Structure formats: C-alpha cells, structure tokens
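Hi support team,

I've been running sequence recovery on a batch of backbones for a student project. Most finish fine, but this one hangs at about 90% for roughly twenty minutes before it completes. I'm not sure whether the input is malformed or the queue is just slow. I've pasted the structure tokens below so you can try to reproduce it. Let me know if you need the job ID as well.

Thanks,
M.K.
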C-alpha cells in the first residue's frame, strides 16, 4: 500500500486488520468553510483550518479530514452543500489528500500521543504468598 509520508504509516498499521473501505477527502479548492460537514461527522474527524491571515484567522477558513480517525460513513459527503467532499478508496485517499489540501493544520495543532499499552498486571496477594 503506497503512502506519501511516513506520518501515515502508523495509521496504516493500526488499520491493517480492520479498516474502512473508503475515506472522506475534502477538496479545499472548492470548500467554502461553511462547516456543515462537522455537524454530521459521528467521530469528530473534521477540523477547522484557520485562514491564512494571522490577524483574522476566521476569514477564509476551511475544513480538513483527519484521515486516521475517519470511519468512512459518507455522512459528510452526503450533506456537503457544495459537493466538495469525495469518498475515495482507502489507498487512494492518502495519496490524493495532500494534492487537494491547500492549508493543513492537523499535524501542527497537536502531537499525536503514543498508543497506550496495558500496564503490567500486579500479582495478586494470594499468588505472592505461595511463591
């Protein structure tokens, strides 16, 4: 499965056993920033991208899908009034998203937390007494 950037490899590994058939990708060239898609997303994977003007970031804002969190439900694409959201095959979404993204902030806003592992189980009192 070809990926353009190393940051997507972790998501691909986590989804190797069970992943959505398709992912939502927003063509930011046509996006108006109306944020209707955010209301319909059941997993909150659509984020607001501030406008390029640092003095007024609410001007010309767009939205962006966080692909590793997208479940492929198609609700955002169905209800987008401007038809700028496409549902693409899983492999295609990761290669096309960088081409359609004019301004991306998802990786800049926060550092991804490492995957939590289960803490080691402490031995029970009864097991310690017999050892």
């Amino acid at each position: 499965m070809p990926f353009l950037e190393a940051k997507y490899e972790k998501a691909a590994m986590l989804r190797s056993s069970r992943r959505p058939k398709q992912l939502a990708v927003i063509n930011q060239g046509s996006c108006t920033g109306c944020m209707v898609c955010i209301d319909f997303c059941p997993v909150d994977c659509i984020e607001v991208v501030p406008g390029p003007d640092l003095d007024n970031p609410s001007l010309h804002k767009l939205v962006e899908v966080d692909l590793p969190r997208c479940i492929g439900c198609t609700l955002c694409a169905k209800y987008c009034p401007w038809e700028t959201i496409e549902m693409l095959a899983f492999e295609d979404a990761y290669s096309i998203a960088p081409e359609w993204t004019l301004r991306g902030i998802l990786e800049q806003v926060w550092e991804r937390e490492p995957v939590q592992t289960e803490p080691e189980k402490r031995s029970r009192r009864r097991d310690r007494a017999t050892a």
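--
Follow-up from support: It reproduced on our side and the slowdown came from queue contention, not your input. The mean pLDDT is 80. No action needed from you.
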